[in-house]
Amino acid sequence: MMILIAGPYRSGTGDDPAQMAANLKRLEEAAWPIFEKGHVPMIGEWVALPVWHMAGGREVGDAIYERVLHPTAARLLEHCDAVLRLPGESKGADNDVAIARRRGLQIYFGIEEIPALGEPR
Fold this sequence. Notes:
- This protein has 121 residues and is α/β, with parallel strands linked by helices.
- It is built from 5 helices and 4 strands.
- Helix 3 (44-54) runs antiparallel to helix 4 (63-76).
- It starts with a strand and ends in a 13-residue tail after the last strand.
- The protein is globular.
- Helix 5 (91-102) links the parallel strand 3 (82-85) and strand 4 (106-108).
- A 4-stranded parallel beta sheet has the order 2-1-3-4.
- It has one domain (2-9, 18-110): Rossmann fold.
- Helix content is 46%, strand content 12%.
């Protein structure tokens, strides 16, 4: 499965780059365990941030940021099989879960809930 990892990125940071980087690191910490279970981890910011920068985005929350960040996750969810919702307040992550539910995707709330494939490790 391709599993979108959803959780706080910008929420609660006051747009502080160090706090946002720490939030991204927390999202990324879930990537290896998902991969190790035989799946493909995906984080919307991995796709959205380079697109935003290349589109001319300069400041978090600018018009281009708003056009790119959340819509990227919505587009990714057209290709994902499931969502891992990490703890913490996040309108974006809550929106990802709502979209995934509408699409009938599996929602996990802990890595331990994700089944491992029968591949050797």
